[in-house]
Specification:
- This protein is of the alpha/beta class and 306 residues long.
- Helix content is 40%, strand content 24%.
- A five-stranded mixed β-sheet has the order 4-3-5-13-6, sandwiched between helices. A four-stranded mixed β-sheet has the order 8-12-7-11. The chain has a two-stranded antiparallel ribbon with strand order 1-2.
């Protein structure tokens, strides 16, 4: 059974004439008749009676035609959505730890497209979800970081998820706070100076939280810790409670505003600095889509690599 045979049958039922159906289908009548005989032979039923006054569907033919219309209708819907010139919107998604530069790169990428023809998604989320989203192809690209402390754990996690890490930039730790913070005027800030202020961290869940943390130096003993779920809340806590977080120092004022700044973290014997290797993850053995490649270019541009 072929879709062509179903299309022929529907034309015959509509015109009640082999001759008229053949004309509408732009095929010869013998070809049309032969196709219907082959279909009847395969099905083991008679689809229609032929007479001098035209063609009449049999009971079996009428019942079969109902299913044929449903099946062919679904085929036409597939063509409308996925065929050449179809209406389906192309999809592209990014999942990222809470980095304003990753959002900025997404904005700059999206501006280059007619968004009525695309379905874009940007997901600022927890580290496990970044990995899961890319592994399940919910997102094409994930943005996260590795460091000496979490590297072995994260590489094992990425390997089990079928992902590979592509490094972009190395950064040392900075203290991120608002401009009205008592320490905002310092040229550098050490751990001892931070003890009177709450350390802000993105919540990752209970399992392996140290390894999954988005903040560098996550194993340090902080006197005060407040966990949040989104970047907007984090910024509000910086202003309302003089909170701070330890980050890469890469600030996007266009999205976060100009009320926040990053001050270099000054290490001591007990609290050494560490390198954040920020990069992106994709599924192994896959090529980036053209949109994915453009997004990576915008990432590099936002990071000052282009």
């Amino acid at each position: 059974m072929t879709l062509t045979q179903l299309r022929y049958l529907m034309a015959i039922a509509r015109t009640k004439s082999l001759n008229q159906a053949a004309k509408q289908l732009y095929v010869s009548q013998p070809s049309l008749t032969s196709a219907m005989k082959e279909l009847e032979k395969e099905l083991g039923i008679t689809l229609f009676y032929r007479s001098g006054r035209g063609v009449t569907l049999t009971g079996d033919g009428t019942e079969f035609l109902l299913y044929a219309k449903q099946l062919y209708g679904q085929y036409e819907e597939l063509l409308k959505r996925y065929g050449k010139g179809g209406s389906r919107r192309k999809k592209f998604g990014v999942s990222t730890q809470h980095y304003s530069f990753a959002v900025k790169a997404f904005v700059d990428m999206a501006k280059q497209f007619d968004m009525s023809r695309y379905e874009f998604a940007i997901r600022e989320t927890r580290t496990p979800e970044v990995i899961s989203d890319v592994s399940t192809m919910k997102s094409e690209i994930g943005v996260l970081y590795l460091c000496d402390f979490n590297r072995k754990f994260m590489e094992k996690l990425l390997k089990s998820a079928g992902l590979e890490f592509h490094p972009l930039i190395n950064c040392q730790a900075y203290v991120y706070l608002w401009k009205g913070h008592p320490l905002a005027g310092e040229s550098s800030i050490c751990f001892e100076q931070l003890k009177d202020y709450p350390c802000l961290a993105f919540e990752q869940g209970d399992d392996s939280a140290f390894y999954l943390a988005e903040e560098i130096l996550s194993t340090n003993e902080y006197a005060q810790v407040i966990r949040a779920n989104d970047r907007a809340t984090m910024l509000n806590l910086m202003v309302g409670l003089n909170g701070y977080t330890l980050c890469s120092g890469i600030i996007c004022e266009e999205l976060n505003g100009s009320d926040f700044l990053a001050v270099p973290f000054e290490p001591d014997e007990q609290n050494q600095n560490s390198i954040m290797e920020i990069g992106y993850v994709v599924r192994k053995h896959t090529l980036l889509s053209p949109i994915g490649g453009l997004y990576v270019e915008e990432l590099k541009r936002c990071l000052g690599l282009l």
